[in-house]
Automatic annotation (TrEMBL):
The entry's keywords: 2Fe-2S, Iron, Iron-sulfur, Metal-binding
Cofactor: [2Fe-2S] cluster
Organism of provenance: Paraburkholderia acidisoli
Name of this protein: Rieske 2Fe-2S domain-containing protein
Domain of life: Bacteria
Length: 106
C-alpha cells in the first residue's frame, strides 16, 4: 500500500535548497529545484552526515563534510569520497505541501 507522508510546506524551501525532515525514527532530505521536488535519505552514505546541511547546485547535493556529491533525482554518487548510492523516494506537491512516498522502503 502506498503511504504518502506530509513533509513540509513548499514555500518553506527555497529554490535550489534542501531541508531535513525526520519521520518514524529516520531522517530524510527534501529538495526543491526549479519548482520540482525530490526526496532522499537524509544521511550521506559515506559518513552519515546530515545532507540537510549540504549545498544544492542544480540536481546535485553536496555533503557538508567531505564534499561528496549525489544526483538528487536518482541518488547515484557523482565522485569520491561517496561510492554508495543514496536511497531516493517519490515526492509530489499537493495543496502547497510536499509529500513523500516511503512505503516499501522502511
Amino acid at each position: 500500500m502506498t503511504q504518502w507522508i506530509d513533509a513540509v510546506a513548499l514555500d518553506e524551501i527555497d529554490d535550489e535548497d534542501v531541508m531535513r525532515f525526520d519521520h518514524g525514527g529516520r531522517t530524510f532530505a527534501i529538495y526543491r529545484v526549479d519548482d520540482e521536488v525530490f526526496a532522499s535519505d537524509g544521511l550521506c552514505t559515506h559518513e552519515q552526515v546530515h545532507l540537510g546541511d549540504g549545498l544544492v547546485m542544480g540536481h546535485v547535493i553536496e555533503c557538508p563534510k567531505h564534499n561528496g556529491r549525489f544526483d538528487i533525482r536518482d541518488g547515484r554518487p557523482l565522485g569520491a569520497p561517496v561510492c554508495v548510492k543514496l536511497a531516493t523516494y517519490p515526492a509530489k506537491v499537493e495543496d502547497g505541501r510536499i509529500l513523500i512516498e516511503i512505503s516499501g522502503k522502511l
